[in-house]
Specification:
heterodimer; A: mainly alpha; Helix Hairpins; 3 helices; elongated; B: mainly alpha; 4 helices
Chain lengths: 93, 113
């Protein structure tokens, strides 16, 4: 039964890597700046999911902390870039 | 990895496959859809439902490996559920503001004539 779980983890990791590849395509091709910000957000979310899948594969809790940090910094980065696109600066006086 | 019992390994495998497919389909929508505001929809499916599936699978496997309930993956679930709408809202507002400003710049020479 553990072989099935290992196969599923491998499949999910390949799916997340494919999703990050799609996000990279949009990041390079995006016609406007907001497309690139959206692609960066998708890349952050899929990197977090990839780390969680690795944490299932090698049963360890260190990957969980890395995933939490990636979620945190992805949120802050996307909010800062969206605020910059909206107002022209991130922290207003 | 070798001592995960069947009652945890089978649902975790199914949830991992479903989550991976959802994330890949969401990112495919980001590449293929024609407009920015339509392009914002599919990754939300991958980052809420797909992340929920993977986090439930992670909770199952770590609980079965530790022999007691391990629920710290709920932290990431809570965080993602709280922050995904804020991100989508701000990005949509930025895109609307920029497209409106560009349309205004296009219209300005016509009004000057």
């Amino acid at each position: 039964m553990s072989a099935l779980l290992e196969l599923a983890v491998t499949f999910a990791s390949l799916c997340f890597a494919l999703a990050m590849l799609f996000a990279t395509v949009r990041l390079f091709r995006g016609p406007a700046a907001q497309d690139r910000v959206l692609a960066l957000d998708v890349m952050y979310a899929n990197g977090m999911l990839l780390l969680l899948a690795l944490g299932i594969r090698f049963v360890s809790s260190a990957y969980f902390d890395m995933a939490l940090l990636i979620a945190l910094f992805g949120f802050v980065g996307t909010i800062a870039l969206a605020k910059f696109l909206l107002r022209g600066e991130v922290i207003e006086p | 990895m070798s001592d995960i019992p069947t009652w945890a390994a089978l649902p975790a495998a199914i949830l991992l496959i479903v989550g991976g497919l959802l994330a890949a389909i969401g990112a495919l929508g980001v590449v293929r859809l024609p407009d920015f505001l339509t392009r914002m929809h599919p990754p939300a499916m991958g980052s809420t439902l797909g992340a929920g599936c993977v986090l439930i699978a992670s909770m199952l496997v770590s609980s079965a490996a530790a022999g007691r309930p391990v629920v710290h993956a709920l932290l990431i679930t809570l965080f993602v559920v709280m922050t995904a709408p804020v991100t989508a809202m701000l990005l949509a507002r930025a895109a609307l503001y920029r497209s409106k400003r560009r349309a205004g710049e296009d219209r300005r020479p016509d009004q000057a004539e």
